[in-house]
Amino acid sequence: MNDSALLSCEWVEQNINTKNTVILDATFFLPRQNRNAQKEYQQQHLPGALFFDIDKVADLSNSLSHMLPSIEDFADTVAKMGIANDTQVLIYDNNHFFAAARVWWMFRVFGHDLVHIVDGGLVRWKQLNFPVNSEQPAQITKSFKARYRQELVFNLEQMACVQKNKSRQIIDARSTDSFLAQRKLADTSLQAGHIPGSSNIPYARLTCAEQQTLLTEQTLQALFEEAQLNLSQPIVTTCGSGVSAAVLALALYQLGLKEVPIYDGSWAEWGRQTDTVKSIGERQHAP
Fold this sequence. Notes:
Elements: E1 6-7, H1 9-15, E2 21-25, H2 37-43, E3 50-51, H3 71-80, E4 88-92, H4 100-109, E5 115-118, H5 121-127, E6 153-154, H6 156-165, E7 169-172, H7 176-179, E8 199-200, H8 217-226, E9 235-238, H9 245-254, E10 262-263, H10 266-270
Parallel strand pairs: 1-5, 2-3, 2-4, 4-5, 6-10, 7-8, 7-9
C-alpha cells in the first residue's frame, strides 16, 4: 500500500479476503435521489461487506442529520463490526464517493488511519465484472479504542472565526445552483446561499462520470487552481450537511494536504443562524 487514500478495485478483488480486513458499504443517497441505500445493499454488495449507515452511526440527540457520534458510540459500533485498532478498513459506495469519503474521514477523526476507499466503488467493481452477492456476513465483536482528532473537525464557532478573520480558505462542495441560492430548499427553515467568502467546487466535478473514480491528481490540481485556491494556505471544507465536504477533503488528501478539517454542521447549521451574515448575491469564485 502507498500513501494514497484510494485502492483500486483490481487490488481489492485480489485482497478482499485478507486476514483482519473489514469492508464497508457506506452508500448514502439524498432524499431527492429517491433511492434506498440499505435495500440496495441487501440486494447486492461486495462479498463480505457490512453496511455502514451514516444516519445511525451519528449523534442521534442532535437535530442535525448524521453529525459525528460520541467517541464512545463510534468505538462501540465499529467494534461490533469486527473492527479493531489493527484492522484494515476498506470503504466503498455506489454514489460518487458521496458517503465513502465521509466514513473514511470519520475513521480518521477517531484515530484510525488503517482505512482506504475503493476507487470507483460498486460502479467500477461491476464494470470489471467482479463478483457481488447478497449474503449477510457474520459479525464478531472486537475491541476498538478511539482517539479523537479534533483538528479534523470544525464547529460553528470556529467557522464564524474563519469567515470573519479570513484565516482559512473555505471550499463548498455543493452544486452550483445550491451555492448561488438558485435551488429551492426543501427545508424552509434554511436560508439559501453560502458562507461569505467561500469558493465553490461541486463534489461531482471531482470524479469521472463513467467509472466514478476520483480524477487524477494532475486534473484535481488544475481544478483547485482554476478556482483560484492556494493549496499552500489553510483550507476548510463545507457542504450541505457535512457529507460531500469529505469528497473535497479526500481530493485534497490525494494532493498531499492530509489535515484539512471539515465543518461538520455545514450549511444545515450555518443556514439557520439568523445572526450570521449570509451571502446570496455575492459573486461566486467559479471553478
